[in-house]
Amino acid sequence: MKFNTSGKKLLVTTDKGMALVLDGYDGSVTDVLLSEETGSMVKEEEGEGGGAVAGVAMTKCPAGPMAACFTRDDRSVLCGNEDGTVGCWSLDGGGGGSGDGSSTLVQTLKGHVGRVGCIATNPKYAQIATACTNTAVWLW
Fold it and tell me: How do the pLDDT tens digits run along the chain, 140 residues long?
């Protein structure tokens, strides 16, 4: 669980391949980011069946909590995946994280051989550090 730089958003990750971006003041869900590994997830129209969050029913569970962080400009979220990739999500997909599902996956970084368990951004430079389960560290 991490606040963004301004404190206006809160990033919460789950062990089901999902990251939630919450309003930092009232806790309402503004964006739902799904891991690429959760491709077998079923989006439901009315959120019925199995305690879905924002209408998403989970059908596959990764091994542990998803690694994720905000970028230094607070406009994007980086999410580590089970398959060793890092998804780069834009929160400015038209709604600016307004909860209308406008977040978009803009790029996928590939390189790790195992699940990305840790991810961080350098607050001073445009740099990302990631680590996977076999302790390999990548600087992007």
Answer: 899 988 999 999 887 778 899 999 999 999 888 876 554 343 333 344 444 455 444 444 455 667 899 988 888 999 888 888 888 899 875 444 444 556 888 888 888 888 888 888 888 888 888 888 776 666 66
Q: What's the 3-state SS for 14-54?
A: CCCCEEEEEECCCCCEEEEEECHHHCCCEECCCCCCCCCEC
**The one-letter amino acid at 103:** S
Q: What is the 3-state secondary structure (H, E, C) of the chain?
A: CEECCCCCEEEEECCCCEEEEEECCCCCEEEEEECHHHCCCEECCCCCCCCCECCEECCCCCCCCCCEEECCCCCEEEEECCCCCEEEEECCCCCCCCCCCCCEEEEEECCCCCCEEEEEECCCCCCEEEEECCCCEEEC
Give the C-alpha separation, 96 to 73, whole Å.
13
Handedness of CA 118, 73, 20, 45 (dihedral sign): negative
Answer yes or no: are the C-beta atoms of 80 and 66 closer than 8 Å. yes
